Amino acid sequence: MAFDKDVLDELAISPAEYELIVKRLGREPNHLELGLFGSLWSEHCGYKHSKPLLKLFASDNPRLLVNPGEENAGVVDIGDGYAIVFKIESHNHPSAIEPYQGAATGVGGIVRDIFAMGARPIALLNSLRFGPLSHERNKYLFDGVISGISEYGNCIGVPNIGGEVGFAECYSGNPLVNAMCIGILRVDELVKATSGSSGNLLILAGSGTGKDGIHGASGLASRSFEDERELRPTVQVGNPFLEKILIESCLEVAKSGNIDGMQDLGAAGLTSASVECAASGLTGIEIDIDLVPRRDDGMSPYEVMLSETQERMLISVKPENAESVKEIFDRWDIDNSIIGKVTTSNRVHIVRGTQLLADLPIGLLTDPPQYVTDSITPPYLEQLQNYDLNNINVPDISPNMVLMKLLTTSNLTSRQSVYQRYDHQVQTNTVIPPGSDGSLIRIKGTEKGIAASTDGNGRLTYLDPYVGGQIAVAEACRNVSCTGAEPIALTNCLNFGNPEKPEVYFQLENCVKGMADASTKFSSPVISGNVRLYNETQDTPIYPTPVVGAVGLTENVRNHVDMSFKNDDNVVLLLGSSEVVCDVSYLAGSEYLEVFHDLIAGQPSIDLKKEIAVQKLCRNLIQHDLVKSAHDCAEGGLAVAIAESCIKGKMGFKGEFETKGRWDVQLFGEQQSRIVISVTEDNVAEVMQLCLDYQVEVLKLGSIGGERLYVPGLLDISLAEISGAWMVGI
Length: 730
What we know:
The protein is of the alpha+beta class. The protein is built from 26 helices and 27 strands. The strands form five sheets. A seven-stranded mixed β-sheet has the order 7-9-6-10-8-11-12. Strands 22-24-21-25-23-26-27 form a seven-stranded mixed β-sheet, sandwiched between helices. The protein has a six-stranded mixed β-sheet with strand order 13-14-15-20-16-17. It is globular, with a radius of gyration of 26 Å.
């Protein structure tokens, strides 16, 4: 073997993979060629342990305009000639090293995926996980990530309309930073990441190429952390001011009709952008290293091809259109250079003038080995799922004190301190801002609205990967349904540990199956996403954490609600249940169980048929203006859901429902498929009839009014107290 183990390890290529490269290539690759293989055969780019599983997300939904996984992002037809483009991606590993730049470039990268397709970015969301903020390192990571997200997003002028933040010890040192972007375009303006035809010219536009981010795809995002590694140089550096004008110039170039394809330079930089475009176009490419503009002196061809410098785009144009495209970039003051051409060779040729530096088949570079690990049920699973929750004692404190404590926990307290740093009103389309279940924006020039939410519960997936995957889909869709919009498509980010471990592969495999089954039942296809594996340090993995981004459509954006109680004497109803149940199984994986009993155990469950009926009914009620508020009943249970609606609306609640049995289960159990709504007294009868029509159970909880949250025999606490506890925030 020509290359020693240290070189292969730097590229995350195993000795067996190197031998396969030599066998299939018919010779030893040189150092530059091996670098190309290291990037394109990495877990980050090649999806070696997940591609077979991702086929479960295949869909023939008529709204889809491109097949999932074929382009930078998914595209969904929303009618009237419009389509939305969206995707979620992770920047976990870079954010663990340099939280500010890791998070900032995560935002920049996902935005480029959207406008690379000719779509204007109109909304950002995120999903974040950290270790407890009582640890100084976790606090540093948290502050840096939030700053990176807010400052990059605010600078480029795209509203950050929603997201979620969660905390658990397993994320210490392994933060999850998942960024989502939504864009809009006219259907006939869609641009694809392709090389176009032979003879086309390749234009590189944007930032000069530097030494930042080298080995980001192979060395950083495709293996677990080890303390002795110095990974800081693998983290990219962002320039949001350049990205802002890059957005505008690329959208103008796209609308000109003078380009054949466009691709952003993300993971593996110029290597992946050029090779993937050639693979899509069934062509070859030739790149002259000396024509690539650089901002650092003395860069080798290896460094130029593997650099992950941000804010760069690759555009394929016919020779006769090159000058008009260049004129647009020049007018926007965007550096641009012709660096190569499209060929008929079906190979990538890297040259320096007349010197050939690399010569590899496109098909070989884009065909990494696929691995299916023999999965093993984790040894902890049976014990935790069969744990007898009847043995859990009811706390020897009042329900008031339990509620107050839960409202101050990091997983349930207000996120205002986070989202108030995001500009969510730029572009002036935001209808429901961050802080509710789902967010909502209008589509200018139409009556339509787009709702969006991110969700995912690592604890529940840890306890049952299949059910946890189903619940991740259901909760994200439920958040969207609570605005009045119908979930029409999903994107996901699968954050897991080392897939080479049979127990971790079991989690990944079963979670994907659960998500695929749920998305099919919701008729909401998974159209795009990202798999981010090896999230572990010192052999300790994170919770298996599937994050789902759900996007919904409403044909009448004026008919919407948020979670806040609105008017005195409105009646509060619970959709999805005819009684406040005290089945201890609903404590499984709950916030209450961990906070008060230091326990994560039980068997999570969900009835998808019931879930779909509850959400459909909720949307119908909102679209017919029959409800004043709607709030997902999830983490923290019923008491926390009611408290949040009280706090948001600055209005009290007077309970009337019957209580019996264990109050901790009734108030804080996390039974799925429930939504708390408020309606006027005049509409109660009609709402009750519709519940019968939809075969959805319903329970009258009480009414709005006063300055206390009152449930006879259980809760009696002032609005000022619960607001004060909740608003302490993160």
